[in-house]
Design brief:
It is a single chain. Helix content is about 70%, strand content about 5%. It is mainly alpha-helical. It has one domain (about 20-255). Helix 1 runs antiparallel to helix 6 and helix 2 (about 45-60) runs antiparallel to helix 10 (about 235-255). The model has no long low-confidence stretch (mean pLDDT about 80).
């Protein structure tokens, strides 16, 4: 089972990795909020945001190609949602095109909104990838809990991350068993087989959850996750937080002026 899908490079050693998880969580949240509040036409501010993320990625010693590939995954989903905005927006027409029997027009305002959604989504994804790639998932959950996130949500995230790989392995085993029995035939038969697999996976997941719960209760689990690592703010956390805040304020000032 693969357990390093999110925090693949969290075992590296850099000044970013040595920061307290709460510092990274708070600065990531501040960055995302600052990006969301930036006006769409502040081109220079978005360039500076990207430069800030690039500098932190290099400082964290993360492979740049890995980060770019991970961040590019969200772009198709963003485009699927926002691709029609340029054709539905109001304002000055940038161009008109004939599509079969219809004539569609692209507006400058719609293009600006599309750029705004894509840029902000990509920058936010970069910040989240930087956070997850430099923080062990257990430390990330501990930091969220110390910041006041409800324990129920933290436990759900912990179990989801732990057992999603178990479920993936279960699905792969079921697929191999299906293929070994010469899976094929008519489309209706294929749909029926896949439906049976989904039902079987649900039942197995439910039974596994019951067994895990029984094992945890038998071991005296009281809802409190205890770890050997202790979170502690240091001078480096304070310095990084202040420097990052100043950088965000400076970029925000650039956005207002431009």
């Amino acid at each position: 089972m693969k357990h390093a899908f999110i925090d693949k490079y969290s075992d590296l050693d850099s000044s970013i990795h040595r920061l307290d998880p709460r510092t990274r969580i708070l600065t990531t949240l501040a960055f995302v909020l600052a990006v969301m509040a930036t006006p769409p036409g502040a081109w220079l501010a978005f360039v500076l945001y990207a430069g800030l993320m690039l500098g932190l990625i290099l400082l964290a010693k993360l492979p740049l190609l890995y980060v770019l590939k991970r961040s590019a995954v969200i772009l198709p989903f963003v485009l699927m949602i926002a691709i029609f905005i340029p054709f539905l927006g109001h304002g000055e027409v940038a161009g008109s095109y004939n599509v079969w029997l219809w004539r569609v027009s692209v507006t400058h305002e719609g293009l600006l909104i599309l750029w705004n959604v894509a840029a902000k989504s990509w920058l936010s994804a970069l910040a989240l990838i930087l956070l997850s790639s430099t923080t062990r998932f257990s430390d990330l959950l501990q930091g969220l809990e110390r910041l006041g996130v409800p324990k129920v949500m933290v436990m759900i995230l912990a179990f989801m991350y732990r057992y999603i790989f178990v479920l993936v392995d279960e699905v792969m085993r079921m697929q191999r068993a299906r293929d070994s029995r010469n899976f094929g035939g008519r489309q209706f038969w294929q749909i029926r087989t896949v439906g049976n697999m989904i039902g079987t996976l649900f039942i197995r997941s439910y039974e596994r959850a019951e067994r895990v719960y029984g094992a945890m209760v038998a071991r005296g689990f009281d809802g409190q996750v205890r770890t050997l690592s202790q979170l502690r703010f240091r001078r480096a956390d304070l310095g990084f937080g202040m420097a990052f805040s100043v950088a965000l304020l400076a970029i925000g000032l650039v956005a207002v002026i431009s």
